[in-house]
Amino acid sequence: MNVNDCICVGAEPIAFVDYLAMERTDPRIAEEIGKGLSRGAEMANISIVGGETATLPDMIRGMDLAGACIGYAEKSKIVLGDKIMEGDVIIGLGSSGLHSNGYTLVRKILKEKGFSYSHKLGNESLGDILLTPTRIYVKEILELLKNVDVHGLAHITGGGIRNLMRLNKKVKFVISDPMEPQPIFYFIRKEGKVEWKEMFQTFNMGMGLAVIVPRDEKDDAISILEKNSEAKVKEVGYVDKGRGVDVKKFKLHYE
After folding, report:
1. Residue 182, number of CB atoms within 10 A of its CB
2. Shared domain check, 102 and 139
C-alpha cells in the first residue's frame, strides 16, 4: 500500500520501515508478517532499513501493523494532477481483491450473517480471499513514467473511485467502461445490502490504480503497462468538462 501511494506522485520508492505491536508475543504470526514484508519489498525493489517490534498488552488487542515508505523524485517530474485536462484518457490497472480497505465492514457482515472464514466463494475460502496481498504497481508505473507524459495517478484505496477527485477538482472523471469487480465485491453487496454508490466509494471494485494520460499517448501507455504488469490493463474512461466523478454503467455521480 505504501509504495503504491509513493509512485502516485511520480516518486520511486527507495526504503521502508515497519512497526509491529502485539498484545502478546506470537512467533508464528511475526514470522508470517516478516515473510510478507520481505516479499513486498522484493516486488517493489526497495530495502527494509529498520523497524520496531513491541509487546503492549495494556494498549493493544490483537496486533497493530504499520509502515512508512520513503521515495525520491526530481522536483520537475513530480506528478500532481495539475496537468489533467479535458480529453485525457483514464487507464485502469486491475486489483487483486480488497487491497486492505473496507475490512471493518466486511468483518461486520460476516459476523452478522454467521459466515465463517472457511466458507467457500467459488473455489476459494473467504479467509484466503481476504488475505490476498495487495497488488504492487511499482515496476510498471516507473517504466511508464520514463516513457509517457503521465498527467495523473490515483491509488484506489479508502475513498474508492472518489480518490480521482484529489488529483484535480476542476475537471470531471468519467468512468464509462469500469473494470469487472471480483466476486467478493458482489458477495459484500448482496450479504450486506450495500448500495452501489457506497460500494464504489468504499472499495476499489476491481481497479487498484488509475492512470491519466493524454489521448495521443494512450496506446503507448497501455502497451508499456501490459508488458510490465501482471494486472489487467484497460481503458476505463476519460476526462470531461465539469466536476466530480461519474460511473456511467451504475448511474453514479460523486462530487
Report:
1. 21
2. yes
Residues with Cβ within 8 Å of 22's Cβ and at least 6 positions away in sequence, in order, are 29, 30, 53, 54, 55, 56, 60, 62, 63, 64
| 151, amino acid identity | H
- If asked whether residues 143 and 243 sit together in one domain, one would say yes
d(CA 162, CA 199) in angstroms, rounded, equals 11
Torsion, Cα of 159, 162, 168, 169 (10° steps) = -110
Tell if the pTM clears 0.90, that is, is over it.
Answer: yes
- For the CA atoms of 82, 85, 91, 93, what is the dihedral angle to 10 degrees? 20
What string of DSSP letters covers 4-36? HHHHTTTPEEEEEEEEEEESS--HHHHHHHHHH
Counting the structural domains of the chain, the total is 2
Could you read off the pLDDT of 22-44 as tens digits, one per residue? 999 889 999 999 999 999 999 99
User: Domain ends where: 77, 105, 140?
Assistant: 77
